[in-house]
């Protein structure tokens, strides 16, 4: 299982939100490049960076900062937040991102999203964020009534390989990941690489996810709150 450290950017700072609520943020570092360097020094080569400003505005407000992280540390970065069109995807790939996470685009511009998957199947990551059992997008401010199976089918036919799924009710809450949800998703769609995100609070949570043979997990607040150390993470 891949352990993927997370950096959430809001107004140029490293933050964490509770359940995606922009009014409930905690600032952990004013220097995101410094934070990313810690992951590099611990032996990680790939991180997860979210532009929370972009998720709301649809513009890549923190892209220069993300590029600075890549240039300074040499880390491979997957990013999401503000991806609304195929042109956005191409802009981010040209900027040096190794993985592009999309949720709003997949809902609002499915034809462009399918085309992006066709063109860049290894780089495209679907952001499947679930809020009370429904798919959420647009900075988690909107939801869809479409079933997950119906939603995924055309993408899988186009060559989708990886899905990052977040249970919003657990995000930033340190309440433990929704293991049953990931187990169900992996059972129903075994051909996809599933990345779990949200709720990890301790090493035991990671070990439980490893037992599912899940592809990867994003770790954020548990690290920032000192519940899991970098040495422990890098040793997983």
Automatic annotation (TrEMBL):
Molecular function in Gene Ontology: 1-(5-phosphoribosyl)-5-[(5-phosphoribosylamino)methylideneamino]imidazole-4-carboxamide isomerase activity
Catalytic activity: 1-(5-phospho-beta-D-ribosyl)-5-[(5-phospho-beta-D-ribosylamino)methylideneamino]imidazole-4-carboxamide = 5-[(5-phospho-1-deoxy-D-ribulos-1-ylimino)methylamino]-1-(5-phospho-beta-D-ribosyl)imidazole-4-carboxamide
One Pfam match: His_biosynth
Major localization class: cytoplasm
EC annotation from Swiss-Prot or TrEMBL: 5.3.1.16
Pathway linked to the protein: Amino-acid biosynthesis; L-histidine biosynthesis; L-histidine from 5-phospho-alpha-D-ribose 1-diphosphate: step 4/9
Protein's cellular compartments: Cytoplasm
Active-site residue list: 8 (proton acceptor), 129 (proton donor)
Family matches, as CDD domains: HisA
Lineage: superkingdom: Bacteria
Keywords: Amino-acid biosynthesis, Cytoplasm, Histidine biosynthesis, Isomerase
Family membership noted in the UniProt record: Belongs to the HisA/HisF family.
Protein known as: 1-(5-phosphoribosyl)-5-[(5-phosphoribosylamino)methylideneamino] imidazole-4-carboxamide isomerase
Lineage: Bacteria, Pseudomonadati, Balneolota, Balneolia, Balneolales
Encoding gene, per UniProt annotation: hisA
